[in-house]
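Q: Could you fold this chain for me?
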Amino acid sequence: MNDEILTLKEVAEYLKLAEKTAYRLAADGKLPGFKVGGSWRFKQTDIESWIEDKKTSNKDNDE
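A: Sure. Below is the predicted structure, expressed as structure tokens.
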């Protein structure tokens, strides 16, 4: 299992988003993350689970 911790910049790059968009999603509770000393951090496994969840929920909405 990969428990790597990613920064906001790394998550934005991984998801192909602007950093501002990734920050807004995290601040709104739509992207799973946590703050350490005022800076956002993300577990890579949580981001991958979030992606899978979004893929599943989008399929459900298409039907």
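A (continued): The mean pLDDT is 91.
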